[in-house]
């Protein structure tokens, strides 16, 4: 199945779930970008909202669904032990059940396409984005330990393991924070390392050759190292501001093993072959995040801006806002709006032309293309009468789309720009007869919905 698709989905779900688990009713859950090519940094650890020794049980259920594509159901459970000296030890288990369809990377065609994958054979109509079916089950476990050092220092360490049909991840990390300037400023540094392995069903495809070529056997390694430095400042008794910079270095097998790119005859605009995509074996990611929290008498405003860039020349901007409104009886509702825009990677191409030299790298994965997204949602936190524990229910709608039609003109440039109908004058009559009068978008709008239900019990 699609590793990038799963990574994007898991990132959004995990970010939302972790905040529901960590905060209960104290803050609203926060999700990541809808489906960026590079997962945004995970939310900063949120302290357990009490230092009273005891236990805390957290549980969430997540449902994520893309229109006519991927669906995910994910239960998560976490148990935390809070010690007398302020130390905390948490263990978390999660299961992702994923099913549905995901784009293959092939270009929508002027003729009917038949696509063969590990999951079987499927046929796609004129103008339809080719997809193939998949299903998978991911299991994950995580341990986290937090410990104070005196009154001004706080340390933390974590380790995780996850496994699915064709992917395995093992990683660990740590962080340290110190309060300075009469505890008005907090400085944080952290780092982590992942050792991942990719073992695609049917073997590893050879980049930029026809998909019928025999695949290589064996596992492919992927190493990921991340570093973070951050600062937060108490500006006034109501206003908290902060920011951080994250650096991530990936090396090894970074290609999506199941995606293809269409080889097109420029004279007819018809697909002649489907080549395996190929990506560089290294990637340097950077992200700068600025955030602010303003506490009114009862309500709380959260604002956040994130700029992301990498050496694949992907650039993205994210603006995120939430407003927690306190309600009678200790409950609250939190509306949420997020806007995301992204520039394409330098080797992104919706198709390759027959007869032209093949590039060193090429991918038609829409997550590496020009992409926009807007999110509207809200969460509601409450306590059940005569019942212990706290509940949080969140729902979000995401609208995601590319920028401009990507159907190429005969003899013109492909890609996400232009917005003009294909030039049928240069085409043979047979090709003109099946040409759609409107441009066919290789990144059509996508509707996504998610629901998160969280429960917290302290005892």
Report on the architecture of this protein:
The protein is mainly beta. The protein has one domain: Porin. It has helices at residues 3-23, 429-434; strands at 54-66, 71-82, 88-103, 113-117, 120-124, 131-149, 153-163, 167-180, 185-198, 220-234, 239-252, 260-265, 270-276, 282-295, 300-310, 315-326, 332-342, 352-353, 371-382, 390-402, 446-458. The strands form three sheets. A 16-stranded antiparallel beta barrel has the order 1-2-3-6-7-8-9-10-11-14-15-16-17-19-20-21.
CATH class: Mainly Beta
Helix content: under 10%
Kindly give the count of domains: 1
The major β-sheet equals: 16 strands, antiparallel, barrel
Rounded to the nearest angstrom, the distance between the terminal CA atoms is 41 Å
Mean pLDDT: 81
Report the radius of gyration as a whole number of Å. 24 Å
Instruction: Briefly note the CATH topology name.
Output: Porin
Identify the CATH homologous superfamily: monomeric porin ompg
- Main sheet: which strands, in order across? 1-2-3-6-7-8-9-10-11-14-15-16-17-19-20-21
Based on helices, strands and strand pairing, what is the structural class? mainly beta
Uncertain segments of ≥5 residues (pLDDT<50)?
Answer: 1-49, 115-121, 405-438
């Amino acid at each position: 199945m699609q590793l990038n698709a799963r990574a994007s989905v898991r990132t959004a779900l995990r970010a939302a779930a972790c905040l529901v688990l960590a905060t209960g009713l104290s803050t609203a859950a926060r999700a990541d970008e809808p489906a960026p090519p590079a997962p945004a940094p995970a939310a900063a650890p949120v302290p357990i909202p009490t230092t009273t020794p005891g236990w805390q049980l957290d549980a969430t259920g997540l449902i994520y669904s893309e229109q006519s594509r991927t669906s995910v159901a994910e239960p998560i459970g976490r148990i935390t032990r809070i010690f007398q000296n302020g130390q905390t030890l948490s263990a978390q288990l999660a299961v992702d059940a994923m099913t549905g369809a995901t784009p293959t990377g092939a270009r929508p065609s002027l003729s009917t396409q038949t696509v063969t994958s590990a999951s079987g054979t499927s046929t796609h109509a004129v103008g339809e984005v080719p997809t193939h079916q998949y299903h998978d089950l991911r299991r994950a476990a995580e341990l986290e330990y937090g410990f104070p050092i005196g009154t001004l220092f706080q340390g933390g360490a974590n380790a995780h393991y996850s496994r699915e049909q064709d992917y395995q991840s093992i990683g660990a990390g740590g962080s340290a924070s110190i309060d300075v300037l009469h505890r008005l400023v907090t400085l944080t540094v952290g780092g982590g390392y992942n050792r991942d392995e990719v073992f695609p069903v049917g073997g590893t495809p050879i980049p930029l050759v026809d998909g019928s070529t025999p695949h290589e056997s064996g596992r492919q390694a992927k190493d990921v190292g991340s570093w973070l430095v951050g600062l937060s400042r108490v500006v006034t008794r109501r206003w908290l501001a902060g920011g951080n910079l994250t650096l991530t270095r990936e090396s090894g097998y970074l290609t999506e093993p199941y995606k293809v790119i269409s080889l097109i005859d420029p004279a007819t605009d018809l697909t002649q072959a489907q080549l395996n995509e190929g990506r560089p074996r290294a990637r340097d990611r950077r992200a700068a995040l600025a955030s602010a929290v303003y506490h009114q008498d009862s309500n709380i405003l959260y604002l956040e801006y994130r700029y992301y860039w990498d050496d694949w020349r992907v650039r993205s901007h994210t603006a995120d806002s939430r407003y927690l409104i306190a309600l009678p009886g200790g409950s609250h509702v939190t509306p949420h709006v997020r806007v995301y825009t992204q520039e394409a990677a330098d080797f992104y191409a919706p198709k390759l032309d027959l007869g032209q030299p093949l590039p060193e790298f090429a991918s038609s994965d829409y997550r590496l293309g020009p992409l926009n997204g807007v999110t509207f949602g809200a969460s509601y936190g409450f306590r059940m009468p005569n019942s212990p524990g706290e509940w949080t229910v969140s729902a979000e709608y995401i609208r995601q789309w590319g920028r401009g039609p990507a159907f190429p003109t005969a003899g013109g440039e492909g890609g996400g720009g232009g917005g003009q109908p294909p030039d049928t004058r240069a085409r043979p009559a047979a090709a003109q007869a099946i040409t759609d009068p409107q441009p066919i978008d290789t990144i059509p709008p996508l509707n996504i919905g998610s629901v998160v239900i969280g429960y917290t019990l302290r005892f």
